[in-house]
Amino acid sequence: KDVVIPITALRELRQPAPITMVMGKGVEEQKAGVDWLLKNYAHLEQHRLTGDDDVIVVDLRVDRGKDVWSLDAELVAASAKMLSSKKLSDAVRYFDGIGYPQSYGKPLLKQLFKKAANQNLLLAAVGDSRREVAREDFSHCVACTTTKGILDLRSKLVSSMAAKRAGVELSDAIGYNDIGAAKMDNSERKRCGMCGKEGQNMRCCAACGQVRYCDRDCQKRHWKQHKTVCRRRQEATAMTNQLHDQLGSLETGHNTVKWISDEGLGKFPSKEQHSEFTKAVGAFRTNFLESGLVAKMVWDHAGDKSVPLHCNIDYGDYVDFMSRWCDGRPGSRTNINMLVCLSSDLDKMRATGAITEVGARMMRDVFAKVDPKTHFSCCFTYKVLGPFAEVILSVPWSTHDNAP
Q1: Cα(342)–Cα(365) distance, rounded to whole angstroms?
Q2: Helices (H) and strands (E) in the chain, counts
Q3: Cross-strand pairs, 204
């Protein structure tokens, strides 16, 4: 089904326009310009973004009494200009030619190109059209965002709207920081649930198999406190096992839930959220994995097939991509928000804070389960349903041959 993002959805979720940098006057015009880019991003993909220095410029300036929504999106996109952030002088000359003098355009563009280095920029000329230049209060400026900012917000909007249509409550814990806060490290797992002492040969709760105790006395004293948590652990384990048994997840319930703190269990999907997530995983596996689309996308990243490769994609990114890809114009290139990494990248990602120590350890466990010569791993998430709405699947490289 087509994904149509109404701007009202942006307002209902109280999401700010992803402006890279607010430039002086005309703040409302800049917000409207970025909202237009958000809604009409698919039209701009006819201009193939192939490098990190690519810049697309659209002219959204209008006569007084009109707004950006009165413009024909296809005509605006067709007349868009492709520039490069590595060629500042060319960009300055272009903006000078459309009414932004070099004394204004050069410092502005220099600042924008520096702030958004190594990112695809989307720039929009906003404010009064050039026909209004004789007015004493004539005003126009430039709105700036990035393709990543646009795709991130489109993903969240698509996910949120899908969950709302399904009658599923959104989670208030959707970031990677929430995952890190909800995980336990190995030393925490070895502590007694009652007294906190560490030990190697400790007994586990027979019901959930997750919490450890020094002896029976500590376990009995802790039962009143542990009873509710124990039930939650069993439910979470059963939900994860369902994904493992029905959809081929690489992780079993026990191995997943044992790393979650008691506090983190409150962020685990509810039964309703889990049901919605399971349906989403099934569709993702059919439309994106078995079709060979994802294998085709990451094939060139693999290089040496003896090195394990992993990709990560969220539900909103997948649905938004599929809609734009199915409706793609001849010669266009549909972009997707997807993380692709090799096992050799983990140390660097850990050092830069892109992944936590717990996350790095979990990824190493995943890499150990996949033969890189025949398969790669793919983590599918549904962030608006919480940090634990995720599943890791093994994908055959052979599906590459199925890709359309």
Answers
A1: 13
A2: 17, 10
A3: 212
pLDDT of res. 331: 61
Listed as ranges, residues in the chain with pLDDT below 50 are 1-2, 174-181
pLDDT at position 188 is 73
For residue 8, give the nearest of 97, 69, 73 by alpha carbon: 69
**Of 366, 358, 371, 364, the residue nearest 346 (C-alpha):** 364
Model pLDDT for residues 255-280, shown as the tens digit of each residue: 778 777 777 777 788 889 889 999 99
Residue by residue, DSSP assigns 212-265 as EESSHHHHHHHHHHHHHHHHHHHHHHHHHHHHHHHH-BSS-HHHHHTTB-HHHH
CA distance 309 to 339: 11
Is residue 48 classed as helix, strand or coil in its secondary structure? coil
**Is there a contact between 359 and 179 (Cβ–Cβ < 8 Å)?**
yes
Considering just the CA atoms, what is the radius of gyration of the chain in Å? 25
What digits encode the pLDDT tens for the residues 120-174?
899 999 999 999 988 888 999 999 999 988 998 888 888 888 888 888 888 765 4
Give the whole-angstrom CA distance, residue 133 versus residue 87. 28
DSSP states of 86-150: T-HHHHHHHHHHTT--HHHHHHHHHHHHHHTTTS-EEEEEEEB-GGGTTSTT--EEEEEEEHHHH
Closest CA to 208 of 181, 229, 177, 183: 229
Q: Scanning the structure block, which residue is given the tokens 């909007």?
A: 157
Task: Please list the helix, strand and coil fractions of the chain in percent, rounded to the nearest 5, in that order.
Answer: 50, 15, 35
335/321 Cα distance (integer angstroms): 7
pLDDT of residue 156: 86
Structure tokens given for 99: 């009414």
Q: Which pLDDT score, from 0 to 100, does residue 176 have?
A: 40
Question: Residue 27 CA to chain centroid, in angstroms?
Answer: 27
Of 306, 322, 363, 319, which Cα lies nearest the Cα of 340? 363
234, with CB counted inside 10 A (0-12, 13-18, 19+), is middle
